[in-house]
Amino acid sequence: MAAARQSAWESAQIQLAAAARHLGLEDGTHQLLATPRREMTVSIPLRRDDGHVEVLRGYRVQHNLSRGPAKGGIRYHPSTDIDEVRALAMWMTWKCALIGIPYGGAKGGVTIDPRLYSQNELERVTRRYASEILPIIGPERDIPAPDVGTDEQTMAWFMDTYSVNKGYTVTGVVTGKPISVGGSQGRGGATSRGVLFSAFAALREAGVDPRDVSVAVQGFGKVGGLAAQFLHDAGCKVVAVSDVKGGAYNSMGLNPAAMIRAMKQGLDSVAGYPGTDHISNEELIELDVDVLVPAALEGVVHESNADRVRARFIVEGANGPTTPDADEILEDRGVLVVPDILANSGGVAVSYFEWVQDLQAYWWTEDQVNDRLKAIMEGAYAEVSALARDEKVSLRTAAQMIGVGRVAEAHRTRGLYP
Ligand code: NAD
Questions:
Q1: Could you tell me if 89 and 36 are in contact, meaning their C-beta atoms sit under 8 angstroms apart?
Q2: H/E stretch holding 44
Q3: Count of CB atoms situated within 10 Å of the CB of 371
């Protein structure tokens, strides 16, 4: 019988243990870092449009606060639970430390399938969830952002709810907001642009010309859609994309920008897009492409399919798409995995820029944002790659060692209270 697939929380713990071992971390510090600092579970009573009331579950986990206020997105998804949120919060801690921004890690979520709720209902869910977790968030405490199933409108409702409760406008309480209420130029595409930068850094190191490369992208949302478009615009051949309903494949290449436009105009799914063959999400993972960009959910490359992955490069737009079991198989097979905390860190980098701009009430141009993002991403990639070479470890272990090491260092320097 096949072993159960490793969950996100198990994966996060295994990755931390590997980094702790390589860093020679003392047990007490390892334990401290393995345990979330603060967790809040709330109930969210929602009056549906037809008048009946249902009660949803919401979470906010602050994994670590040693290097600054907590930072991390809010997910609306039917399979979201406290363990998933814990894992995502832990990855945020390492990610922020890795790219050198002064934040701890957090994540939030509501167990809900947002596709089944009206905009008015989602606004009520967001305002109630924001009110429930209000005691632990704020620009100096914990700053949410969008994740799966949430977007800039969600952040605008969130910011408004927080501000009304405070009695004045607090733009810096969330990032990923619309520009009209303190959002940053360049935030919308930041995660995807970061995926592009890290994919190109990996290709450059391997001596591969991006114009000779075919790409498959799983997840055609905020991250995957624009990652596909940026990779296409930069000369790669994007042959497959997918969403929760399935995928679209054309060996001659797709036009992601046209597909994004069609989705904005009301197309429900990329599956069955005109001029493409329908493929499943499972088939997409195993396609004969050079670069695979998982940009949907955790655990999609696992022990049972890792030996069938044909891509030479996996660039993790999503958080936690590759389980530790799969990592081992891929490493043995020479597949280069650019890990999530590096590959998708462009989003939190520009979230940091947004927060800085909000706190200063001073706005940067899109070029300033994109240039600074590129510098951060390329610097982080070079640092991770050099450590991986020196220590003879994977890019994931190297990235984790840098992130975990910096947080451990902050703990040591601050000391243990009391
Ligand atoms: P999104 O909600 O905008 O898009 C998610 C996409 O995944 C959609 O196309 C959806 O249809 C698809 N999807 C959902 N369930 C699926 C399933 N079971 N199988 C296949 N596809 C499925 O979310 P997003 O913001 O693009 O986030 C995607 C990933 O990127 C997540 O892992 C998220 O944590 C990570 N991430 C997001 C950001 C950001 O700035 N939004 C930053 C860093 C990392």
A1: yes
A2: strand 38-47
A3: 13
Structural domain count, the chain: 2
The CATH number of the domain holding residue 222 is 3.40.50.720
Is 139 inside a domain boundary? yes
Dihedrals phi, psi of 152, to nearest 5 degrees: -65, -30
Q: Which atom of ligand 1 is nearest to the CA of 224?
A: 26
List pLDDT tens digits, range 256-285.
Answer: 999 999 999 999 999 989 999 999 999 999
Q: Please choose, from the candidates 332, 280, 281, the residue with its C-alpha nearest in 3D space to the C-alpha of residue 306.
A: 332
Which residues form ligand 1's pocket by a CB distance below 6 Å? 146-149, 191, 218-224, 242-244, 281, 295-297, 317-319, 344, 347
DSSP H/E element including 263: helix 256-264
Q: pTM higher than 0.85, yes or no?
A: yes
Q: How far apart are CA 107 and CA 404, in angstroms?
A: 17
The residue whose CB lies within 8 Å of the most ligand 1 atoms, and thus the one to mutate among 113, 148, 198, is 148
Q: How far is the CA of 409 from the centre of ligand 1 (A)?
A: 32
